[in-house]
């Protein structure tokens, strides 16, 4: 047997968890073709078939199941080593902290970390923006910030505040359609919202349930696209109220607050990292930001 590439074992585990090469590619940022080639390389190195590629996805063989189980155990040991090292750094406020959040929360954070850097110049921040919640157990991120309470994993969870939403348009759009907006004649107005793949979002369901309101004619897959569409006069749409507060010259509050859309904000961190000095410093700073919001 040739020398084995250990990183290909990690690819095998990711593909097995994801069930398909396409989903594994979305998680890793590696193309399906490259993932497939990495699996082929591992099979050649081990001299055994590990994955059957069928129409429904990727199914481990009997040998593949055994090796995947061992690889997961190796992965957990590696994570435990990293967590142990972090626990030994209790008094060293330095290093990198990776934060996973959705788009607008990420924007909220990136525009407010200047003071943190002055306090902790040796701590580096990586903000990983995604709709998908990254796994803290598998150390895909150190801190998660989400508008739902995580239910799985050995996590330390804390509610830190609320997100509220309003209905906005551009000031010039309001001037052009003031009469219809003031009368809430939604059928005579244009809307900006998420695309069909995200029509299940609560903000989108609220928007599409406005009496006689048309489906948004301008639809985006990302929240900052909605902000751009609204602020450039393309119609009405739902945004976090902190965005409206931050850009009063670009956004007019048609409905300043929609109480039924309020969402709790939760931070989570793997329990093995909660005592890390740098993790505590970042969590405390984030908590203060949302408390003041």
Automatic annotation (TrEMBL):
Domain of life: Bacteria
Domain HTH lysR-type: 4-61
Xref: Pfam families: HTH_1, LysR_substrate
Gene Ontology molecular function terms on file: DNA binding; DNA-binding transcription factor activity
Protein known as: HTH lysR-type domain-containing protein
Annotated InterPro entries: LTTR, LysR_HTH_N, LysR_subst-bd, WH-like_DNA-bd_sf, WH_DNA-bd_sf
The keyword Ribonucleoprotein appears for this protein: no
Keyword terms: DNA-binding, Transcription, Transcription regulation
Family: Belongs to the LysR transcriptional regulatory family.
């Amino acid at each position: 047997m040739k020398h084995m590439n250990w990183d290909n074992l990690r690819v095998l585990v990711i593909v097995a968890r994801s069930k398909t090469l396409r989903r594994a590619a979305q998680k890793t940022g590696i193309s399906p073709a490259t993932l497939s080639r990495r699996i082929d390389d591992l099979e050649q190195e081990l001299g055994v078939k590990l994955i059957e590629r069928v129409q429904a996805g990727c199914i481990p063989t009997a040998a593949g199941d055994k090796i995947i189980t061992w690889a997961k155990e190796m992965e957990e040991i590696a994570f435990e080593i990293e967590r142990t090292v972090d626990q030994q750094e209790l008094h060293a406020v330095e290093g990198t902290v990776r934060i996973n959040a959705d788009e607008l929360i990420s924007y909220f954070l990136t525009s407010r970390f200047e003071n943190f850097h002055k306090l902790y110049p040796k701590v580096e921040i990586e903000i990983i923006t995604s709709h998908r919640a990254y796994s803290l157990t598998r150390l895909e991120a150190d801190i998660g910030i989400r508008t739902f309470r995580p239910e799985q994993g050995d996590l330390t969870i804390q509610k830190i505040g609320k997100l509220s939403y309003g209905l906005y348009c551009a000031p010039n759009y309001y001037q052009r359609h003031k009469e219809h907006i003031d009368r809430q004649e939604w059928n005579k107005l244009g809307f900006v919202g998420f695309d069909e793949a995200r029509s299940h979002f609560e903000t989108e369901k609220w928007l599409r349930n406005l009496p006689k309101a048309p489906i948004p004619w301008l639809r985006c897959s990302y929240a900052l696209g909605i902000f751009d569409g609204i602020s450039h006069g393309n119609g009405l749409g739902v945004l976090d109220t902190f965005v409206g507060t931050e850009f009063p010259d670009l956004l007019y509050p048609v409905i300043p607050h929609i109480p039924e859309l309020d969402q709790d904000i939760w931070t989570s961190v793997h329990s093995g990292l909660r005592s890390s000095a740098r993790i505590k410093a970042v969590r405390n700073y984030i908590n203060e930001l949302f408390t003041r919001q």
